[in-house]
Request: fold
Amino acid sequence: MRSKTIAGIAAVVLAGGVIAALLWPDGTAGDGLAEPPSAGERRDGEGGRIARTGDAGPEMAAKRQLVERDATLTARLCSLQCSADLAKMAGELSGLPADRVPPRLGELRAGHPRMVQLTWVDRAESPILSGGLPAGLEQKLEPLLREAQQAVKAGNKYDYGPIEADGEHFAVIGVPGRDGAGIVGIVRQSVTGKVKKMQTENLRLVPYPREGRYQIESVDSRTGRDITVDHGEENGIASHYHKQEVVVRFAAQPDAEELEQISRDLSISEMRKTGYAYVFQSERSTAEEMIDYFRKSGNVVYVEPHYLYMTNETAGGDNPNDVLFEPYQWNLPIIDTIPGWAISTGNEDIIVAVVDTGVDLEHDDLKGRLAEGMNFISPGEPPSDDVGHGTHVAGVISAVVNNAEGVAGMTWHDRVMPIKVLDATGAGSAYAVAQGIIWATDNGARVINLSLGNYAESEFLHDAVRYAYDHDVVLVAATGNDNTDQPGYPAAYPEVLGVSATDGRLRLADFSNYGDYVDVVAPGVSIASTYPGSQYAALSGTSMASPHAAALAALIRSVNPLLRNTEVMDIMRRTAVDLGEPGKDPLYGYGQIDVAAALKEAVRLKQSVGLYPEWVRREIEQWRSQEASGG
Ligand SMILES: [Ca+2]
Ligand SMILES: [Ca+2]
Ligand SMILES: [Ca+2]
Reply:
């Protein structure tokens, strides 16, 4: 057994060569775990940043403040989502005959386990109750309950909390219905306490727990259907179709030469293959002229206009209706996500593996957004999340958009593959992480998010990273939360896009790692996302920044699945918004990711006439490899 300490962070190589990883440690933890971070570090030119002077006090104080802020924000997310749930209930109950109200109220409470008591008030003398007040809290809650009932009868909303008692948090929320009726809920906000505990560990305000299956001395910060938005091309005709596009199914598969001939004859600016059919877009020819051309060739099963199917999704331009979006998801507008959705909202064939603590597989706001995953901690078990970290990361990428519930993810259609490699303490071995990366690669992931790391280089983990990279996967990783320029892995491997965290003022987060190996930055302070138990939480960390970049990689691949992983990473770097010192710098790398700019660039490359033969070549290459693998 050999152990080494880098910059005050102990990375332990366990017997058998397994490196314990992987929630970003902060070296300032007590309990003899590690020395304080190397003294005298300072990031120059950074107004308002915390200087490293050998005294870890200010950094710890800032981190404690952040934990409090995240906990408070989480309580607010919880209240707001619960108000929305109660408003739905009030609407439904207002429309029911009186005798149907009590049983329905009971059903509604059963469906919302966090609502310990529901009260329906109307003009009738006594309110209708379901559930009871938590034992010992009656005296505290009863006056608030009466106040809330009076408020809703007067047509007003009521929201009081959090009320802390016996280490638990509660809120009293009232929502008016119609005609002086309304509903009052007593909500257990257990999420607030959990977030506090988790963030205290992850930002390393306390020693990382020693229990668990690994003897960890230091662990890291745990750390669709392609809706190409069709621009209204002249409406007013019964069937909408692209005026310069046709769909063709060939009788005999054309080779590269024939496709190039077609391209020249029809001035094709874009070609894509979907299933058996090709879609051709011309710079000059109309759909009618193109149909005529293909019919005359004799080599078609069918050729038809490319009809537009309108959906009800309000992609592009409009803010989504998710309850927590407008008040809390500052992280999406600041990277131009909403204008980006006008270019692409994603493609369900592009899968992002979240190699992490697992994901809440039953979360209301992740329904239909998950691909089949794997559990490397308890083989044979589903990859569910017993920590909260992986569920939060997954929500940043793929929480259901525009379902009037919770948060909006960055992609509407790309799916998350949950890979559990970190155990209940948020730690895992390099072996489990490597297995997770390889399994994800072999099972169709096109992007892998790694919101985990360590300061020790592991050849074994690096090999797994190279395997994924050589199989054209885009790997994205968090740099760590220790305000240090010590390179963390896997983020610092050249094959991996390293992501640091910014706040809402476009400054590097005080906790964020930095250094020459940082590629880009993304929002990572008080990020609202999904949390186990169909809850929501605000968390901070480079772990939260990384999935923004991973989701963007998936959106880019949705626009053009033929782009190589190196090209996807290159687009993200080139289109990043430069921050700090001009040009690439050690704090911000190439700058902050920009969804709209990156997707525009992906479209530009796809439509570039100069690159057209290359896309055709790759299309055929892909088609052949699919044929070969029987896919
Ligand atoms: Ca949602
Ligand atoms: Ca790197
Ligand atoms: Ca810069």
